[in-house]
Design brief:
The complex is a heterotrimer. Chain A is α+β, with helices and mostly antiparallel strands. Chain A folds into 2 domains: about 5-75, Ubiquitin-like (UB roll); about 105-230, 2-Layer Sandwich (Alpha-Beta Plaits), CATH 3.30.70.20. Chain A is built from 4 helices and 10 strands, in the order E-E-H-E-E-E-H-H-E-E-H-E-E-E. Chain A has helices at about 20-30, 80-95, 110-115, 150-160, and strands at about 5-10, 10-15, 50-55, 60, 70-75, 135, 140-145, 165-170, 175-180, 205-210. In chain A, the strands form 3 sheets. Chain A has a 5-stranded mixed β-sheet with strand order 2-1-5-3-4, with helices on one face. Chain A starts with a strand and ends in a 33-residue tail after the last strand. Chain B has one domain (about 5-95, about 130-175): Rossmann fold, CATH 3.40.50.700. Chain B has a 5-stranded parallel β-sheet with strand order 2-1-3-5-7, with helices on both faces. The longest helix of chain B is centred in the middle third of the chain and has 13 residues, at about 60-75. Chain C has 5 domains: about 10-60; about 75-160, Glutaredoxin (3-Layer(aba) Sandwich); about 185-235 and about 245-415, Rossmann fold, CATH 3.40.50; about 425-495, Roll (Ubiquitin-like (UB roll)), CATH 3.10.20; about 505-590, NADH-ubiquinone oxidoreductase 51kDa subunit, iron-sulphur binding domain (de novo design (two linked rop proteins), Up-down Bundle). In chain C, about 40% of the residues lie in helices and about 10% in strands. Chain C contains 25 helices and 16 strands. In chain C, the strands form 4 sheets. Chain C has a 6-stranded mixed β-sheet. Chain C is globular, with a radius of gyration of 25 Å. The chains are: A alpha+beta, B alpha/beta, C alpha/beta. Chains in contact: A-B, A-C, B-C.
Chain lengths: ~240, ~180, ~625
């Protein structure tokens, strides 16, 4: 199907279909816009704000704003990338992201986006929040220290698995990942390791047990390749049942 | 004139220093342009006026602060090297544990302990509630991430600095683990 | 004393139509009867309503007024606006706690009473104020607190407390066309029916009425767009591409249950902007005007159901409003075939909020009406096309509906003759702070700040916060500016500060407010408001540096540029503006020009000193 409408992204002409978002059209055209809460298989969310672009002089999230014919969009500007870096740094200091101790390291989107944005330090003052680890489930681990509240697991469990295992509780800086059980334990939900929600986490917050460190350093997703060159990496990894 | 460089390790594992040594024979090239002041390499205990200070490790106790402040005072350029200096790193895993519980575990209930007592010797550095990255205590000019940063990254970083331009790491040199 | 722990869950659920969209109301009722929202209740609710527990928990844990732990028989929440502070709130709170031998945020040992703070409760003209089990008590002083402490110690049920404690005068100091002229219920509706819906819309248009919530969007445009928008029936007909609507928040399924009408009228009575209290007075003494405006809107857009989202802090108005609604039903001003007009059916339901400023944002308000956490939706689509239950919805401020009723009654030209060309009509200003006569001032748009200051007796004012923390802080140099959409737009707050006030502390109070009220949905606001608050606290502790000032400026720019909604966009305003207009307030606090540690170095050794019993030289650090 040929797309008849176009807009420009950093001067490049991007074709799109009626109803497509800027993010969808850009991805289809092979142009990367940094993002964390967006995933092509799920409905747009618009919370991480990393994909903020300049749409004809107005700032907006590429994942929730629709493309319009003749629209002029800027993404790869120094100012926008500096702000994206700052948002990534905010995500780092908000949680407890200790990469050397994390089995997702090397395959982690948060880390990869930070590499892409050449983040050298989390910069802001760390919050060091007290957050729980839930190891109750036989096959799936929740490490809330690494949760960035993107709600991909919430969406995957609700929209794909039809289970509603996850949700976000609290508000503001005290927002936290909650699960669908009175005990608050993952083991008491109907979560299964084969759920889409078990593999969609962009960070190391939801992990399948006994799969850690199976890929040696040097062979991990982002060891040699910038996330911009590895489209949707880490999200569509084959299930290892 | 050679650049004067000082290095130290605070709440770290000396892994970054090991990586520095991993520069191997190129260390000889490095020594053509730099001269080490305080550093585990020289065993000098206090740093004097330096061009570059390189700090490994985060800040976990009062002594770390004294050393760090001495570095800040004496070094024109201060570099945070490695995950611990930049984020607190592995030592910061204790930030989720109450300090009292840490002491109990170490001095009262640890395996092999009997009638353990919590020491009150002024010689022992007194620990903070939490481990902090060094940029939360003094102003830092450059950050060189990695756990540890590779020898290549350290080499690239130092030679860039010595040559007087902004250090720039290639994609594969920039990592947090 | 309320009898707690007897909770008829099935009854509550049935009362709310067994509809999960009424979750906030259901949880309110649960807490009202149980005193808390116990964890096992969530499971029972999940079973009764057929929705996952996790969604109920998300809602229950979002709102400030809901809690799983007991807050005793008496929950005391002190209003925490800067105006309350200026009126001695902190000292009074401490006095009160000492009288009852308790600590804030800790249930008293006898399990009787709990004391905490809460965001401004809409009584800045009678500060300091508090909520007792959700009911407002204004004008606190030692005598009133002594009395309250006595009543609590005697375990007197709230219903037996002296009514004078809960008396809240309107304090209308200057009345105009809205408040000063008599209004006969039904007059605006009769005029509307005589004129017809389209012609009424034309009058609203001719009046150039703009939204009174602060943003100033043209009301007629909103109504016209909603009137035109396709409701449920039409959408179903061409069940076209689902992408037409992104849907709220990544398309969380709305528990829609259509009850006939597919257009909705929603009145935003979530008057949460600190320093604003005009809706309180409108609803307390002019509710007919507001309800009539909603009914006029219903006639214009073709809605059968209206909802008023009343902030939880105004629970004391609930019974009064219900009785006005009942009276209007009896007078056939609500219900079926209103005023004999065949097929003109409309009724209004009251929903109470539960302590969340963000619900004043219209799409967050709709989420809350649908029983969810109040997180703003992705827009477009706007509510006029996709609002409550994803149907076309008009959301207007209380005052806007009141104006609409007057316009329907007296015509657009009359309204447009008041105020300025771009800002027609009158505006209700809620004045508080350092002035002799705090209260409500109804003034024509275009009035100068100076004039208002003279009216309220604040000739020596140093600064005014117009439209609350999210509005504009102006200094004495700008008092010739005008209250109007083209100069100083306002939702109504007007907080006056005398030269003795520390404008840094004003901004710091507001930074705490925004950090507390951020919904947490987007990164910049969730993290940025807390970073900003923490840095302001650092400055307040005398540990600030020029570096911190530079950092705050960067965080504030990111908040303004990258946030998801108005809360984040405006959360930095107080700090940005006071930094610019009162730089001395900041500079005098900077300890060093270069850099100061992010945390209290010596303080961070306190625990270890206690554990080791050390107090030697090496057990301390200079914070310099």
């Amino acid at each position: 199907m040929t797309k008849t409408c176009t807009f420009t992204l950093d001067g490049k002409t991007i074709p799109f279909e009626e109803g497509e978002t800027i993010m969808e059209a850009a991805s289809a055209a092979g142009v990367y816009i940094p993002h964390l809460c967006h995933h092509p298989e799920f409905k747009p969310h618009g919370s991480c704000k990393l994909c903020t672009v300049n749409i004809g002089g107005r700032l907006g999230a590429a994942c929730t704003n629709r493309a319009a014919d003749g629209m002029k969009v800027d993404s790869e500007t120094e100012a926008l990338n500096a702000d994206r870096r700052a948002l990534t740094q905010m995500l780092f200091v908000e949680g407890n992201h200790i990469c050397p101790s994390c089995e997702k390291s090397g395959n982690c989107q948060l880390q990869a986006v930070a590499y892409h944005l050449e983040m050298l330090t989390p910069h802001f003052t760390h919050f060091y929040p007290a957050r729980d680890i839930d190891a109750s489930h036989p096959d799936v681990l929740i490490e809330r220290n690494r949760c960035i509240l993107c709600e991909l697991c919430v969406r995957a469990s609700r929209d794909v698995d039809g289970k509603n295992v996850f949700g976000i509780g609290g508000r503001g800086i005290k927002s936290r990942l909650i699960v669908n059980s009175a005990s608050g334990r993952l083991a008491d939900t109907n979560m299964s390791v084969t759920d889409r929600a078990a593999e969609v986490c962009p960070t190391g917050a939801i992990l399948r047990k006994r799969h850690g460190f199976t890929v040696p350093i040097g062979k991990r997703l982002y060891d040699h390749h910038d996330i911009a060159e590895v489209p949707e990496a880490g999200l569509k990894e084959p299930r290892r049942d | 004139m050679k650049l004067k460089v000082a290095t130290c390790s605070l709440a770290g594992c000396f892994g970054c220093h090991m990586s520095l040594l991993d520069i191997d024979e190129k260390l000889f090239d490095l020594l053509k342009v730099v001269e080490f002041d305080r550093s585990p390499i020289t065993d000098i205990k206090h740093c004097g006026p330096c061009d570059i200070g390189i700090v490994e490790g985060g800040v976990c106790n009062a002594e770390n602060v004294h050393v760090l402040k001495e570095f800040r005072k004496n070094c024109k350029v201060l570099v945070a090297m490695g995950a611990c200096a930049i984020t607190g790193g592995i030592p910061a895993l204790r930030n989720n544990v109450d300090l009292w519980d840490c002491f109990q575990e170490v001095y009262h209930y640890g395996i092999g302990l009997e009638n353990g007592q919590i020491p009150n010797d002024p010689e022992l550095p007194l620990p903070f509630d939490k481990v902090h990255p060094i940029n939360e205590v003094v102003r830092i000019d450059y950050f060189l991430p990695g756990c540890p940063p590779s020898a290549d990254a350290i080499w690239k970083f130092l030679t860039d600095l010595a040559a007087g331009h902004e250090p720039k790491l290639d994609y594969e040199m920039l990592h947090y683990d | 004393m309320t009898e707690h722990n007897v909770c008829d869950l099935p009854g509550i659920v049935a009362r709310w139509g067994k509809d999960p969209a009424n979750m906030v109301q259901i949880l309110r009722d649960v807490q009202e009867s149980c005193g808390t929202i116990p964890s096992d209740t969530l499971d029972q609710l999940a079973r009764l309503l057929g929705v996952p527990r996790v969604r109920i928990e998300a809602t229950a844990s979002f709102y400030h007024f809901f809690h799983a732990e007991s807050h005793g028989a008496y929950e005391i929440l002190f209003s925490d606006n800067i105006i309350d502070h200026m009126a001695g709130k902190e000292a009074l709170k401490q006095y009160f706690c000492e009288r009852l031998w308790l600590e804030p945020r800790k249930l008293s040992e006898d399990g009787l009473v709990y004391v905490d703070d809460t965001a401004d409760i809409g009584l800045a003209d009678q500060a300091p104020a508090m909520l007792v089990n959700g009911y407002a008590v204004p004008a606190l002083d030692h005598a009133r607190l002594d009395l309250i402490a006595e009543l609590i110690r005697a375990k007197k049920p709230l219903g037996e407390w002296p009514p004078m404690l809960f008396e809240i005068p309107d304090n209308v100091r200057l009345a105009g066309p809205l408040m000063g002229e008599p209004f006969a219920p039904g007059a605006a509706l009769q005029a509307t029916l005589a004129r017809g819906a389209e012609a009424t819309l034309a009058e609203i248009d001719a009046a150039n009425l703009r939204g009174r919530g602060g943003a100033g969007f043209k009301t007629a445009t909103k109504w016209a767009s909603c009137r035109k928008a396709e409701g449920e029936a039409l959408l179903k007909k061409h069940a076209g591409p689902p992408q037409v609507f992104l849907g709220p928040l990544g398309g969380e399924p709305s528990e829609a249950r259509f009850s006939g009408g597919d257009h909705y009228v929603v009145c935003n009575a979530d008057e949460g902007e600190p320093g604003t209290f005009k809706d309180r007075v409108l609803l307390s003494s002019h509710a007919d005007l507001v309800f009539e405006g909603m009914t006029v809107c219903a006639r214009v857009i073709g809605a059968k159901q209206g909802l008023i989202y009343l902030r939880g802090e105004y629970k004391n108005l609930l019974e009064k409003l219900k009785s006005v609604l009942a009276r209007r039903r009896e007078a056939n001003l609500l219900g079926r075939n209103i005023l004999g007009e065949q097929g003109f059916d409309f009724d209004i339901e009251i929903h109470l909020g539960a302590g969340a400023y963000i619900c004043g944002e219209e799409s967050a308000l709709i989420e809350s009406l649908e029983g969810k956490p109040g997180k703003p939706r992705n827009r477009p689509p706007f509510p006029d096309r996709c609002g409550y239950r994803n149907q076309p919805t008009v959301v207007n401020n209380v005052e806007t509906f009141a104006c609409a009723a007057k316009i329907a009654e007296r015509g657009g030209a009359w309204f447009a003759s008041i105020g300025t060309a771009q800002s027609t009509g009158s505006k209700l200003i809620s004045i508080s702070g350092d002035c002799q006569r705090p209260g409500i001032y109804e003034v024509p748009f275009g009035v100068t700040v100076q004039q208002l200051l003279i009216d309220c007796g604040a000739e020596d004012a140093h600064a005014v916060q117009v439209s609350g923390p999210s509005g504009t802080c102006i200094s004495y140099r700008e008092f010739d500016r005008r209250i109007a959409f083209e100069d100083l737009p306002t939702a109504g707050a007007f907080m006056v500060f005398s030269p003795e006030r520390d404008m840094f502390e004003v901004a710091r109070n507001f930074s705490h407010f925004f950090a507390h009220e951020s919904c947490g949905f987007c990164t910049p606001c969730r993290v940025g408001t807390s970073l900003l608050r923490n840095t302001m606290d650092k400055l307040a502790a005398g540990k600030g540096s020029a570096y911190d000032m530079h950092e705050m400026k960067n965080i504030m720019r990111i908040l303004q540029d990258m946030s998801h909604c108005g809360l984040g966009h405006t959360a930095a305003n107080p700090v940005v503006q006071t930094m610019e207009k009162f730089p001395d307030a900041y500079e005098k606090r900077l300890k060093k020009l270069d850099f100061e540690p992010a945390f209290d170095l010596d303080g961070a050794l306190t625990t270890a000193r206690l554990i080791t019993g050390r107090d030697d030289e090496w057990a301390h650090l200079d914070n310099d």
